[in-house]
């Protein structure tokens, strides 16, 4: 489907089935490959030499030898070499992928166009700083100290929302963290991650397979959902319970990354 001007909304559009024929001058009947639902003439559009034909008046649908509504019968024989095509308006597949180039900056949410920048000031002793969002991974942020780009893993690491420098930035140092690409708060995984553990009667911490936050996780203890902050806390990939899970108790954590 083509559009002239600006398309306001990307709508899901069916791709209807098309069949082509050529008139012979000797017959008014043409056998369709596809059935016409209900044998209703209005369920197809018939075009003869680029002129749309009127249902029932110009053509009808009749059953074939197998009692299937697949015969297109014109009221008069199309002439030899006449161009005929049929659009099945009741048969089609849906194209759910927007056409290439149809999504521009105008359609994007503002949070996907404006990259987040966190700023901090060093005090000569602190090595950890809490960012406003959880980055997808360490390579999805750029970290600058007094305008100098820091090397990931060598000069800093991340755990959840916490940025940790290997050495404390100097007092009054200007620290800037730029979150690159699609922001983590807009991401949706194809499925939830499910981590399971078994209590041993002494440990109050478990290590998740991915970093998340307390409010982004559903934690179940022997099938009972727990309350964030009150029953547990999550820092990076470590979940810490405010109580000691009993021996052989079942713990399940479901979350998206």
How many E-type strands? 21
Number of domains: 3
Provide the gyration radius in Å: 32 Å
Which regions are unreliable across 5 or more consecutive residues at pLDDT < 50? Answer: 1-6, 186-190
| CATH top level assignment of the largest domain | Mainly Beta
Topology-level CATH name of the largest domain? Immunoglobulin-like
General shape = elongated
Mean pLDDT: 86
**SSE order:** EEEEEEEHEEEEEEEEEEEEEE
What percent of the residues sit in helical stretches (DSSP H or I)? under 10%
Structural class: mainly beta
If classified by CATH, what would the architecture of the largest domain be?
Sandwich
Q: What is the spatial order of strands in the main beta sheet?
A: 1-7-3-4
Specify the number of helices: 1
Topology at a glance:
Layout: E1 13-22, E2 29-31, E3 44-48, E4 51-52, E5 59-63, E6 69-74, E7 83-95, H1 110-113, E8 117-121, E9 128-130, E10 141-145, E11 148-149, E12 156-159, E13 162-165, E14 174-179, E15 193-198, E16 205-207, E17 217-221, E18 224-225, E19 232-235, E20 238-241, E21 250-255
Antiparallel strand pairs: 1-7, 2-6, 3-4, 3-7, 5-6, 8-14, 9-13, 10-11, 10-14, 12-13, 15-21, 16-20, 17-18, 17-21, 19-20
